[in-house]
Amino acid sequence: MLLPDTLAREIITSHHKQPRHVGPQPGQPHAERVNVSCGDQVQVWASQPGGLLSVTFVGRGCAISQASASLMTGLLGGKTRAEAAALAAEFRSMVLGEAAPSAALGDLVALAGVSKLLARRKCALLAWDALEEVLGGGGSDSLRSLTPSQPPPSRGRS
Ligand code: ZN
Q1: DSSP string, 87-136
Q2: What is the pTM of this model?
Q3: Which residues in the chain show pLDDT less than 70?
Q4: Cα of 157 from ligand 1 centre, angstroms
Q5: Ligand 1 center–CA 60 separation, angstroms
C-alpha cells in the first residue's frame, strides 16, 4: 500500500504545520532525541491511563521528523504496549526499506518514500527512538521484546 506522492506530501505537510497531540505530560515517562545532522529535536511522553497508551510530543525540525512524531502519537494513542511495539517494529521496517508499507500504519505510510532517502531515515525514526526509550526504559531492543505479561520494571506506574 503505497500512497501517491502528492497525497503523501499533503499528509506530511498537514502534520508538520498542525502537529497533533502536542504538549508535555508532567511526571510521566519521557525521553528526548536529537538528530544533529538535520537539526531535529523531539521529546516524547507516554502515559497509560486505564492501561492504554496516551502519547504526546514536543519538537522542532524538518517536516519529516515532526510529521512522523505527530502521526505516531495519533496512531499509538489508545493502543496497548504490545500493539505499540508491533507497530513501531512495522514502521521501522518500512523506513529501513525492509518491509512494504502496511495498512496497519495508517497515514504513516505517507513516510514510506523515506526508505529511499538514507539521510532522512533518522528524521523519520527520531520520535520512535524516543518512544522506545520511554516504553522500554532502555535501548530500542527493549520495546521490541515487550510482551503484555512482562511489564518493564519501575516504568509506567504512578
Ligand atoms: Zn530532519
Answers
A1: HHHHHHHHHTTSS---GGGGGGGGGGGGGG-GGGHHHHHHHHHHHHHHHH
A2: 0.85
A3: 1, 137-158
A4: 33
A5: 9
Ligand 1 geometric centre to CA of 150 (Å): 34
C-beta separation of 82 from 35 below 8 A: no
- CA 153 – ligand 1 centroid, Å: 33
DSSP one-letter code for 22: B
pLDDT of residue 145: 36
Residue carrying C-alpha cell 518514500: 113
DSSP assignment of 33-49: EEETTTTEEEEEEEE-G
Cell triple for residue 70? 505527530
pLDDT of amino acid 1: 56
| Strand pairing class (30-35; 54-60) | unpaired
**Cα 61 to ligand 1 centroid, rounded to whole Å:** 6
The domains located in the chain, with CATH, are 5-144 (3.90.1010.10)
Find the 152 Cα to ligand 1 centroid distance in Å: 30
pLDDT at 4: 83
